[in-house]
Amino acid sequence: MTHACRQSGFEPKLDLSIRSGGLVTLLSLVATGMGLSVMPAHTQILHREGIVHRPIPELQLKRFIALVWNKNDSSPILNNFAEFFRSNSI
């Protein structure tokens, strides 16, 4: 996110960065007027009184994900899914 802001010509002044598990906390802070946030669009389903969601179509962010599994699991379903993931990843 910081990189995207810099590419857009400004340096964000971040006072708080909330990672996993803190979405409800962050929404509460925004709802009480203690700031604003950039969130994935799917968080709109977590309707909260006092919060407005607006898309930012110009913002092109990429998220890096990983497929993780137990190395001792050799189920065919897992193997098929992992192969699908490998062959369709960019």
Which H/E pattern describes the elements? HHH
Instruction: Give me the secondary-structure category.
Output: mainly alpha
Q: The biggest beta sheet, please?
A: none
Shape: elongated
**Nearest-angstrom radius of gyration?**
18 Å
Percentage of residues in helical conformation:
25-40%
How far apart are the termini?
Answer: 21 Å
The overall strand count is 0
Share of β-strand residues: under 5%
As for the number of domains, it is 1
Give the averaged pLDDT, no decimals: 78
Number of DSSP helical runs: 3
Any low-confidence stretches, pLDDT <50, length ≥5?
none
Secondary-structure blueprint of this entry?
Layout: H1 2-7, H2 23-31, H3 76-88
Could you explain the architecture of this structure?
With 90 residues, this protein is mostly helical. It has one domain (2-88). It is 31% helix and 0% strand. It is built from three helices and no strands. The longest helix has 13 residues, at 76-88. It is elongated, with a radius of gyration of 18 Å. The two termini are 21 Å apart.
